């Protein structure tokens, strides 16, 4: 029922925007649509099994869409010691004809924190998403994902950061489970 309400509200917004756009020139309508980008629940974007960060209820911008291309989507940081912070910059370009608006970028866990531009990226321009991984308490092989949601088709892009974390030799050992008494 909630999805129906959201779709109904989105439909009303589109119809209203179309009516307003018909009163002005073509450029006025484009500008108005860009200014009024709203977010609606994603439809037809089911979370694939085993894809951390994939969320079917992720908000995606509605309105004019564009496209973006990353120079790379996978980064292997090699081997680091537990407690180190790894930073990597993912560069992208707006390859479409509309301003690129990144609504969100979310790490698959709290140890992976992305920072993305809040201002629209003009067509043909470039931008960066900085990702920081905190290896504290994360020994062993690590694979983390950042889900980037923007006014693109598809609405979500994925960035991956992988590597190995050497266990801190001074870290307390895991407690040995004590069998229950009878």
UniProtKB/TrEMBL annotation:
The keyword Glycoprotein does not apply. Residues 38-59 have a biased composition (Low complexity). Keywords: Signal. Residues 32-64, 159-182 are annotated as: Disordered. It holds the Pfam family DUF1573. The keyword Phosphoprotein does not apply. It comes from the Bacteria. Residues 1-21 form the signal peptide. Gene3D superfamilies: Immunoglobulins. PANTHER family: LIPOPROTEIN-RELATED (PTHR37833), SIGNAL PEPTIDE PROTEIN (PTHR37833:SF1). This is DUF1573 domain-containing protein. It comes from Candidatus Opimibacter skivensis.
